[in-house]
Design a protein that fits this description.
Radius of gyration of chain A: 20 Å
Helix content of chain A: 55-70%
Radius of gyration of chain B: 16 Å
Oligomer: heterodimer
Helix content of chain B: under 10%
Mean pLDDT of chain A: 93
Strand content of chain B: over 45%
Shape of chain A: elongated
């Protein structure tokens, strides 16, 4: 028990990692897709925006829970053979994910709340739970300009996220196939330790 | 998006009945007056959001109806619709309708229709002509309806189309039909007793 716990992330951490990973990929693909839709697909576009908001809030809360879990549970140590800078890079990139996973939903929330449509398009998560707008945008004169700017930032952060995911995946594959260590196994859902 | 609304209002109108000499002073309880059977009546509307139609209805409305087919000059319809009672089967739409961009229900809680004359246009067919007020805009309106009276029970059906923007329903980004259709079809089904 202790040995395997030390070799892997906890089951909860593993579940959260893969669930959030799946949702993030859905959000990235869905976000760019819905943004590309034109007027003839207005109905689909509208529905996808509602779903995007719902998933975004879901990721936000899953991430908060995950952060709490991360801070209260031990994680497996990185291989002793790893150079110090690599260890540092791993920790920094992981921290970067947490920052992005919290920031993205908040920025998206600001996009929605500042939109000229905000009053008429209240957010109902998955069509059911009312989610309020952020209060800071009531007196804004040119809501469209502001909202568009925040949306621009939302998109830029999406690209940063894609870059970080690429780095993360590349590092995991390097550990698995070049270093041939146990790093990827730490996070795999089914215990598969190398001998 | 939202939809639309408008509607209804007019609605309420309807019905009728017969009555006899309408006693103009004592409005409600005269023999020319009809009482709406809310259970069987419906003040509905159809709008379109991003090209897709949706239906809704107003649960809150009251109408004073004095109607005798043999005494049309005395017939009149006064209807008041609680615009905050519009329901379209979707929370997001229902949350938007009372806001300032749409009905602005806080500032203008009621839409009203008041007939100036009711004329017969055919066998069992009539037109109620009057004024419809939604938000702070009043416009002339003609509501065609059919009416059948059996004993002390009357059934009336009416329908008309409104341009929501004629009444300022849908401000700003919604003053065009890009997201929410301009036309709103209002349908009224009233059953009343006397």
């Amino acid at each position: 028990m202790t040995a395997s716990a030390r070799d892997r992330y906890t089951s909860v951490a593993i579940a959260l990692h893969w669930l959030i990973a799946l949702l993030v990929i859905v959000q990235l693909a869905g976000g760019f897709f819905m943004d590309s839709l034109q007027e003839p697909q207005a109905a689909l576009k509208f529905q996808l925006f509602q779903l995007h908001k719902s998933f975004g809030v879901t990721i936000f809360f899953l991430t908060l829970f995950r952060l709490g879990w991360r801070l209260t549970h031990k994680i497996p140590p990185l291989p002793a053979a790893m150079p110090k800078w690599e260890k540092m890079a791993a920790r920094v990139s992981h921290a970067g994910f947490y920052v992005l996973l919290v920031a993205m939903p908040l920025i998206g929330w600001a996009v929605v709340s500042s939109s000229p449509f905000a009053q008429s398009v209240q957010t109902f998560l998955f069509g059911v739970i009312h989610w309020p707008h952020l209060p800071f945008f009531d007196g804004v004169a040119d809501r469209k300009a502001l909202s568009d700017e925040i949306a621009e930032i939302h998109e830029i952060v999406a690209f940063v996220m894609i870059g970080l995911i690429a780095l993360h995946v590349a590092a995991a594959l390097k550990h698995q196939f070049i270093d041939k260590d146990t790093v990827l196994a730490h996070m795999l859902p089914f215990a598969r330790r190398r001998g | 998006m939202r939809a639309i609304l408008i509607a209804a209002l007019a609605g309420a109108l309807l019905v009728a009945g017969c009555g006899s000499k309408a006693d103009q002073a004592a409005a409600p309880a005269t023999d020319g007056a009809w009482t709406i059977d809310k259970e069987s009546s419906r003040l509905g509307f159809v709008g379109a959001q991003t090209g897709k139609e949706f239906t809704g209805e107003f649960a809150g409305y009251e109408a004073t109806i004095v109607f005798d087919p043999d005494d049309l000059p005395s017939a009149r319809i006064e209807a008041v619709v609680d615009v905050g009672s519009a329901r379209t089967g979707e929370r997001q739409r229902d949350a938007a309708l009372p806001t300032a961009d749409w009905f602005s229900a806080k500032a203008f809680p009621n839409a009203t229709f008041s007939s100036s004359e009711i004329v017969r246009t055919g066998e069992g067919a009539y037109e109620a002509r009057g004024k419809l007020t939604i938000r702070d805009t009043t416009r002339d309106l003609v509501l065609p309806f059919t009416l059948a009276i059996e004993g002390d029970r009357a059934t009336a059906d009416g329908a008309l189309s409104l341009a929501r923007t004629d009444f300022g329903v849908g401000q700003g980004e919604f003053s065009t039909g890009q997201w929410v259709g301009i036309e709103v079809k209002v349908s009224i089904h009233l059953e009343a007793t006397r």
